[in-house]
Task: structure prediction
Amino acid sequence: MFDYALIHYGEIALKGLNRPLYEKKLVENIEKALANQDYATIKKLQGRILLELNERSDVSKIEDALKKVLGISWFAFCYMTEADKESIQRCVDRNITFTKNEKIKVSTNRADKNIPFTSIDLNRELGTHLINTYGVKVSLKEPEKEIYIEIADGKAYIFTKKIRGLCGLPVGVSGNVLHLLSGGIDSPVAAWLLMKRGCKVDFLHFHAFQMFNERWNAKVLDLVKVLNKYSFGSRIFFVPFYPFEVAALQAPIRYRLILFRRFMVRVAEKLASKYGIVALGSGENLAQVSSQTLENLAVIEHASSLPILRPLLTYDKNEIVNIAKQIGTFEISVRPYKDCCSLFIAKHPVTKAKLEDVEAIEADLSLKDAVDSSVEKAEIIEVKEHI
Ligand code: ATP
Ligand code: MG
Result:
């Protein structure tokens, strides 16, 4: 039975004043991720977090949960003993099995420098003991089993398997973003990347539904529930598409897409300032489709005074699809969906819009009222569950 899970985070990112905030958030997020799990305590050590298990702890469920916590670089289920050579040797003998001729390596890491022996001393002595007792061989280059010993705060933590975490930063350390979420593949991945840089993400979706109930069944809500696994709850603003549709009826069809993008960021900006959110997010990419040009992005940008974060700007589609599969949104994104703009928007929208042209078209439309009416009609749903 393991005594603890030893959790490491990306120390390079932890310069100066950010460190206590980062650690506090990470501990909070781990507690949320483990809300349904049994364990004894969670506490901070020198540069690590220590999760004390109990006899009811389900190690495989805890492993699954920790694998989803952003900010963890790796973790290990381990045995704990006193930080002296005899205790360490006894603990290894009691808990780890070896086979004859197995290639092994002992790797000691001393965070606690007050220990009266060096890492190299311990590696050599424990290695020699294992050779003499079990007939193992030492292979520093290609070991079949690595015995890790971490010494921190006067104790030794012993394990043989490091489990990779997602890395990144803990959700919540970088502020709040209102993210434009469609039912497609890209925008959920973009939201996840923002979470991975520590953002708390709320969502805004423009829908073409008439009935309230339909929203609840919408795939968009399922996407948010998957993303909640990483962010432990979020809000989604559902906003109807029709105020824009009505206002833009007189607009040239090739311009409707860019008008809609500008409309979306205007509504988003209003909602964001109402709720104290400081940036917008989108799944836009450079040149993935002919309308996603630098010129068009610049024209969209002009409609908002808030920064628009586009984490996928430089990604290839296959990279995006790979992340979507890894985080669990792909299967939902490919489900059929009643997209709000498919009928209303041209097959070949304008590719290099000019700001003057777009502003001249907008001057003839009552878009401001449409923005206000959409903001007024926004329905907010707190989504706590995850799937
Ligand atoms: P996605 O897979 O995210 O839909 P996409 O490559 O299909 O991306 P577009 O449909 O051109 O791109 O949309 C670009 C971005 O605009 C989306 O990534 C999303 O951020 C936003 N967006 C598009 N449609 C909506 C919508 N109905 N509600 C909210 N945001 C939207
Ligand atoms: Mg789309």
About this structure: The radius of gyration is 26 Å. The mean pLDDT is 90. DSSP finds 14 helices and 15 strands in the chain. Residues 180-182, 184-187, 204-206, 264, 282-284, 288, 340 surround adenosine-5'-triphosphate (ligand 1) (CB under 6 Å).
